[in-house]
Amino acid sequence: MNKILCLLVCAWLPASAGLAQQADPLRQRMGEAQFHAAGLDRLSPAELATLERWLAAHGGELVDVVPVSQLPSARAAAQAAERPAAPAAARQDTISSRIAGRFTGWHAGDVLTLANGQRWRVVDDSSLVTGRPLEAPAVTVKHGPFGGWLLKVEGYNTSARVAPAD
């Protein structure tokens, strides 16, 4: 269910600026493959129209339902966590995942790909060298104290200032 909700949110929100005026059906925004994977092709035209009207009215609220760690891109996660409409207590601003594959550290400018598909670029001059390769270490990405995002690898006492790379 979370995957379907994430697909709906991610397909709908990029066009959120003019939802009421948009004539593009959900099928076109999602693409045929995702539309089918979500099972939406089994809806009747009336059911699909009802879903599209509901998303137009409530789509922005869904970002708070889908955990930011499950959003498909770092940019979507950053935007969801920084939405001013979200109450501070309900806002999800910590992403928990793992590095995708082997990890030996980072340097300025490196792009780190997480297991959830999000990609984050190191934007400060920090560096981390693990000494030995690690296989998919756990990471957290969260808001920094003065804005921006900080990425920390479990077991290491350093963090990198990062920005969405996708």
What does this structure look like?
This is Secreted protein. Keywords: Signal. This protein has 166 residues and is an alpha+beta fold. The protein has 2 domains: 2-66, no CATH class; 94-164. It is 27% helix and 25% strand. The chain has helices at residues 2-12, 26-30, 32-37, 45-58, 74-81, and strands spanning 94-98, 102-106, 111-113, 119-122, 128-135, 138-143, 149-153, 159-164. The strands form 2 sheets. It has a 6-stranded antiparallel β-sheet with strand order 1-6-7-8-4-3. Strand 7 and strand 8 form a beta hairpin. The model is unreliable at 12-23 and 86-91 (pLDDT under 50).
Helical stretch tally: 5
What is the β-strand count? 8
Helix and strand content put the structural class at: alpha+beta
- SSE string, helices as H and strands as E: HHHHHEEEEEEEE
Instruction: Please describe the biggest sheet, giving its number of strands, its sense, and whether it closes into a barrel.
Output: 6 strands, antiparallel
Write down the domain tally.
Answer: 2
Shape: elongated
**Which spans have pLDDT < 50 for at least 5 consecutive residues?**
12-23, 86-91
Rounded to an integer in angstroms, the radius of gyration calculated over CA atoms is 18 Å
| Straight-line N-to-C gap | 25 Å
List keywords for this structure.
single chain, 166 residues, alpha+beta, 6-stranded antiparallel beta sheet, two-stranded antiparallel sheet, 5 helices
List the helices and strands and how they pair.
Layout (H helix, E strand, L loop, with lengths): L1 H11 L13 H5 L1 H6 L7 H14 L15 H8 L12 E5 L3 E5 L4 E3 L5 E4 L5 E8 L2 E6 L5 E5 L5 E6 L2
Antiparallel strand pairs: 1-6, 2-5, 3-4, 4-8, 6-7, 7-8
